User: Which sequence fits this backbone?
Protein backbone atom coordinates (compact mmCIF):
# COMPACT_ATOMS: atom_id res chain seq x y z
CA UNK A 1 0.00 0.00 0.00
CA UNK A 2 1.42 3.37 -1.00
CA UNK A 3 1.52 6.30 1.39
CA UNK A 4 -0.48 9.34 0.36
CA UNK A 5 0.88 12.65 1.60
CA UNK A 6 -1.81 14.87 0.14
CA UNK A 7 -5.25 13.56 -0.71
CA UNK A 8 -6.11 16.72 -2.61
CA UNK A 9 -3.00 16.67 -4.79
CA UNK A 10 -2.64 12.94 -5.33
CA UNK A 11 -6.05 11.32 -5.38
CA UNK A 12 -8.68 13.62 -6.73
CA UNK A 13 -9.51 16.76 -8.56
CA UNK A 14 -11.72 18.02 -5.78
CA UNK A 15 -13.04 21.14 -4.15
CA UNK A 16 -12.10 21.86 -0.54
CA UNK A 17 -14.75 22.45 2.07
CA UNK A 18 -12.85 23.81 5.05
CA UNK A 19 -14.29 24.60 8.43
CA UNK A 20 -13.53 28.19 9.39
CA UNK A 21 -13.56 27.53 13.14
CA UNK A 22 -14.35 24.70 15.50
CA UNK A 23 -17.57 24.52 17.52
CA UNK A 24 -19.43 26.75 15.05
CA UNK A 25 -21.91 26.42 12.21
CA UNK A 26 -21.00 27.92 8.83
CA UNK A 27 -24.21 28.92 7.00
CA UNK A 28 -22.33 29.32 3.72
CA UNK A 29 -21.89 25.56 3.54
CA UNK A 30 -25.64 25.09 3.14
CA UNK A 31 -25.38 26.65 -0.33
CA UNK A 32 -22.82 24.09 -1.58
CA UNK A 33 -25.28 21.79 -3.39
CA UNK A 34 -26.43 24.62 -5.65
CA UNK A 35 -23.02 25.97 -6.60
CA UNK A 36 -22.30 25.49 -10.31
CA UNK A 37 -18.52 25.52 -9.80
CA UNK A 38 -18.81 22.33 -7.73
CA UNK A 39 -20.96 20.36 -10.19
CA UNK A 40 -19.45 16.93 -10.84
CA UNK A 41 -16.57 17.44 -8.40
CA UNK A 42 -15.78 15.44 -5.33
CA UNK A 43 -15.65 17.41 -2.09
CA UNK A 44 -12.72 17.11 0.28
CA UNK A 45 -14.16 17.95 3.68
CA UNK A 46 -11.61 19.23 6.20
CA UNK A 47 -12.55 19.97 9.78
CA UNK A 48 -14.77 18.68 12.56
CA UNK A 49 -18.20 20.04 11.51
CA UNK A 50 -19.67 19.45 14.97
CA UNK A 51 -23.03 21.17 14.54
CA UNK A 52 -26.12 19.00 14.09
CA UNK A 53 -27.27 21.54 11.51
CA UNK A 54 -24.90 20.05 8.93
CA UNK A 55 -27.01 16.87 8.86
CA UNK A 56 -30.43 18.46 8.33
CA UNK A 57 -32.00 16.86 5.29
CA UNK A 58 -29.55 13.96 5.17
CA UNK A 59 -30.08 12.56 8.66
CA UNK A 60 -32.11 9.54 7.50
CA UNK A 61 -29.44 8.64 4.94
CA UNK A 62 -26.71 9.01 7.56
CA UNK A 63 -28.58 6.72 9.95
CA UNK A 64 -28.82 4.14 7.18
CA UNK A 65 -25.07 4.29 6.55
CA UNK A 66 -24.04 4.44 10.21
CA UNK A 67 -26.08 1.52 11.53
CA UNK A 68 -24.40 -1.50 13.05
CA UNK A 69 -23.95 -4.50 10.79
CA UNK A 70 -26.05 -7.57 11.72
CA UNK A 71 -23.02 -9.55 12.95
CA UNK A 72 -22.35 -6.71 15.42
CA UNK A 73 -25.90 -5.71 16.36
CA UNK A 74 -27.04 -9.23 17.29
CA UNK A 75 -24.38 -9.72 20.01
CA UNK A 76 -25.07 -6.20 21.28
CA UNK A 77 -28.80 -6.96 21.59
CA UNK A 78 -27.99 -10.25 23.36
CA UNK A 79 -25.67 -8.49 25.81
CA UNK A 80 -28.20 -5.75 26.56
CA UNK A 81 -30.85 -8.37 27.20
CA UNK A 82 -28.53 -10.25 29.58
CA UNK A 83 -27.85 -7.12 31.66
CA UNK A 84 -31.51 -6.05 31.74
CA UNK A 85 -32.55 -5.53 35.38
CA UNK A 86 -34.81 -8.39 36.52
CA UNK A 87 -37.39 -5.88 37.81
CA UNK A 88 -37.86 -4.67 34.22
CA UNK A 89 -38.56 -8.08 32.72
CA UNK A 90 -42.18 -7.33 31.87
CA UNK A 91 -41.78 -3.63 31.13
CA UNK A 92 -40.71 -1.87 28.00
CA UNK A 93 -38.03 0.74 28.45
CA UNK A 94 -35.47 2.75 26.56
CA UNK A 95 -31.78 2.75 27.30
CA UNK A 96 -29.99 6.06 27.29
CA UNK A 97 -26.23 6.30 27.02
CA UNK A 98 -24.11 9.24 28.07
CA UNK A 99 -20.71 9.73 26.51
CA UNK A 100 -18.31 12.04 28.31
CA UNK A 101 -15.23 13.19 26.48
CA UNK A 102 -12.75 13.94 29.20
CA UNK A 103 -9.19 12.84 28.44
CA UNK A 104 -7.85 15.58 26.22
CA UNK A 105 -10.39 18.26 27.15
CA UNK A 106 -9.14 18.30 30.73
CA UNK A 107 -5.95 19.99 29.52
CA UNK A 108 -5.84 23.78 29.85
CA UNK A 109 -4.84 24.22 26.21
CA UNK A 110 -8.35 23.02 25.21
CA UNK A 111 -10.13 25.49 27.51
CA UNK A 112 -9.27 28.45 25.28
CA UNK A 113 -11.33 26.80 22.53
CA UNK A 114 -14.37 26.39 24.78
CA UNK A 115 -13.93 22.72 25.64
CA UNK A 116 -15.03 21.73 29.09
CA UNK A 117 -16.34 18.74 31.03
CA UNK A 118 -19.63 19.46 32.79
CA UNK A 119 -19.83 18.98 36.52
CA UNK A 120 -22.05 16.45 38.30
CA UNK A 121 -25.19 18.71 38.49
CA UNK A 122 -25.31 18.91 34.68
CA UNK A 123 -25.52 15.12 34.38
CA UNK A 124 -27.96 14.81 37.28
CA UNK A 125 -30.28 17.35 35.66
CA UNK A 126 -29.97 15.67 32.25
CA UNK A 127 -30.72 12.23 33.71
CA UNK A 128 -33.72 13.58 35.66
CA UNK A 129 -35.36 14.49 32.36
CA UNK A 130 -35.54 10.81 31.41
CA UNK A 131 -37.10 9.45 34.58
CA UNK A 132 -40.71 8.43 34.10
CA UNK A 133 -42.69 8.28 37.31
Assistant:
Amino acid sequence: MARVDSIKDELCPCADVVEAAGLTYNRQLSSLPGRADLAGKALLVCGWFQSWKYTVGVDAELRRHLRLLPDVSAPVRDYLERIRPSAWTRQSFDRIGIHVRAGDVLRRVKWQFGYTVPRRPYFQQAMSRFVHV
Notes: Residues 1-84 form one domain. The mean pLDDT is 82.
